[in-house]
Amino acid sequence: MSPIPSFDYSLIYGERTIRSVANSTRIDGEEFPAEAVRIPIVTHTQVFKFNEANEALIALKTDPIRGAGGLNIPLDDSAGK
User: Fold this and answer.
1) Which residues of 62-78 are buried (b: 16+ CB within 10 A; e: fewer)?
2) Strand 68-72 relative to strand 45-49: parallel, antiparallel, unpaired?
3) Residue ranges per domain, the chain?
4) The overall pTM is greater than 0.70
5) Which ranges in the chain belong to alpha helices (H)?
6) What is the CA radius of gyration of the chain?
7) Cα dist. 18→9, 23, 44, 45 in Å?
8) Taking the CB of residue 48, how many other CB atoms lie within 10 A of it?
């Protein structure tokens, strides 16, 4: 294993996420879905309409979302109507 490089810690604040996948291989990625079903892994998401973007940001800031939050951006001109 090589040493972990240093970086500017100010970059890890302000809605940024650091994830490491250094030890994952292509085979790990191919085997993971079957393992996730076997365990089972259950995920939680909350999707907001595009016109609810401000509410989504407030929810992310105040942390009432269980799991991950997402913003549904329509591909047409309806903009969350």
Assistant:
1) eeeeeeeeeeeeeeeee
2) parallel
3) 42-81
4) no
5) 26-38, 53-62
6) 18
7) 11, 15, 20, 20
8) 19
21: tokens are: 């996948």
Size (the chain), residues:
81
- How far is 26 from 4, CA to CA, in rounded Å? 22
Evaluate the CA torsion angle 22, 27, 33, 39 in order and state its sign. Answer: negative
Whose structure tokens read 């030890």?
Answer: 23
User: pLDDT tens for residues 18-72?
Assistant: 566 667 888 988 998 999 899 888 888 999 999 999 999 999 889 888 888 889 9
Closest CA to 50 of 14, 22, 77, 18: 77
Q: Which residue has the tokens 């994830």?
A: 19
